[in-house]
Amino acid sequence: MSQKNFERKMNRLEEIVETINTGELALEDALARFEEGVGLIRELSAELNEARGKITKFVEMLNQEVPLDVPDNS
Q1: Where are the domains of the chain?
Q2: C-alpha to C-alpha distance for 72 and 41, rounded to whole angstroms
Q3: What own/partner pairs with CB < 8 Å and gap ≥ 24 does 52-61 have?
Q4: 3-class secondary structure, 4
Q5: Which terminus of the chain has fewer CB atoms gathered within 10 Å of its CB, N or C?
Q6: At what angle do helices 3-22 and 27-63 cross, to 10 degrees?
Q7: Rounded to an integer, what distance in angstroms lies between the CA atom of residue 45 and that of residue 58?
Q8: Residues 27-54 pLDDT 10s
Q9: DSSP string of 9-71, one letter each residue
C-alpha cells in the first residue's frame, strides 16, 4: 500500500461525498458516484486491515521477552 495511493483514494471519496451532498446530481449520476464510493471504501478498508496486521505483528515482535542471560560484550 502506498501512502500517496491511499491519500488519492481518500481524496476521491471526499469529493464524491461532497458532490452527492450538494443534491444537484441527477439520480443516475448520484447512484454511479455512490457505487464508486462504496468501491473505494472497500479498497481503503482492505488496505487499513493489511496495515493493522503488519502493526500487530510488529508489536508482538517487540513484546517478545528478551533473554536475561545475554552476554555482555563490553
Answers
A1: 3-63
A2: 51
A3: none
A4: helix
A5: C
A6: 150
A7: 20
A8: 999 999 999 999 999 999 999 999 999 9
A9: HHHHHHHHHHHHHHT-S-HHHHHHHHHHHHHHHHHHHHHHHHHHHHHHHHHHHHHSPPPTT--
